[in-house]
Amino acid sequence: MTKTAALFVAFLSANLFPASLFAQTPAGGNVGVQQGLVVQQALNAAQRGPPIRAGLHGAFLAGATYIAPSGFEGAGDVSEARWSVGAVVEYVATNGAMFGFAFDREHSRYDFPDTPPANAAGIDDVFANRFGLNMRRNLSDKWSLFGNLDTTFNVAEGAGWGAGQTSGGLLSFSRNVSDHFSFSIGLIARSRLEEHALVLPIPGFYWKITERLTFRTAQGATLSWKNDARGKWVTDFSAGYESRAFRLNEDGELPGGVVRDRRVPVIASLRYGPNPGLSARIFAGVALAQQFEFLDSEGNAAGTADADPSLIAGVSGSIRF
Questions:
Q1: How far apart, in whole angstroms, are the C-alpha atoms of residue 14 and residue 43?
Q2: Helix, strand or coil for residue 300?
Q3: Where are the domains of the chain?
Q4: For residue 159, which of 254, 39, 38, 42 has the smallest C-alpha distance?
């Protein structure tokens, strides 16, 4: 996969195609897999579709993910554990327009029990904090508009927040073609650590194949099956591309450098949503094509380390009011 193609798929899997702009998309989403870092969690909450009534609403989200030990060639292995929490406050006007504020925090812990690959020494705890503004508006009975602005701070323990700041925005239009098919098209622009800003078009679609089977390109590619007629239990099969980047502190092997942590998760999950305000999820699968890329403080390449496939599993939940 070329670097350009990988970056494009990364934003596909980061939930930057707002699935909830598709009126048929069920509540839930991939909260907990943290595809595309914390952006995915906040957008899942903020884009879930307008509540039944106008007024002030909110949501709390939490998730945990574990990536089992994966070996490096001649350099031991690594495992990862992640915890995340998030909150959303939004106001829905009488005409259905939504304006919201989202915050979420993710804590990742990397464990290198043996000799770590070069430049990885000292990578232990990494934190991501995101603040975002979201808006959504129905333009007609067929068209919807979604917009997002956010700033995120991705840093290893001991590094200042400002050193790991990135910011960006998203504008996307969605059209309901029929009760069974919707598509969206938009544009994203975002700054990156030690790289040029990224600007990409973002197409996506949702296809209701049968009353129980759906396929969507938001959050990577996801095939969903309703296990019961009311859709309280849903089984998902999904794949995507996941990429994280964070700033290191000044005390490690690569002072002030940047680490990029990439993988392709392929997972199966079971979601339970007894009502629109409550959702729980468990998932398991395999993480493929895992790679660490290291850059120095000037953005120069300082090496890469490829890791073997490994198991991935986790849980997540959300409550909305």
A1: 9
A2: coil
A3: 3-320
A4: 254
Cα(14)–Cα(22) distance, integer angstroms: 17
Contact 27, 279 (CB under 8 A): yes
Indicate the average pLDDT of the chain: 83
Q: What is the pLDDT of residues 177-191, one digit of tens each?
A: 999 999 999 999 999
Interatomic CA distance for residues 84 and 161, integer angstroms: 18
Residue 2 has pLDDT above 50, yes or no: no
Distance spanning both ends of the chain, measured CA to CA: 42
**What is the spatial distance between Cα 152 and Cα 129, in angstroms, rounded to a whole number?**
6
DSSP 145: E
Q: What is the pTM of this model?
A: 0.82
- Give the number of other Cβ atoms within 10 Å of residue 7's Cβ: 16
Q: Is the pLDDT of residue 223 over 60?
A: yes
Cα(239)–Cα(266) distance, integer angstroms: 4
Domain at 3-320, CATH from 2.60.40, 2.30.30, 2.40.160, 3.40.50: 2.40.160
- The whole-number pLDDT of residue 190 equals 93
In the numeric block, the tokens 């049968």 are attached to 210
Q: What tokens were used for 267?
A: 């997972």
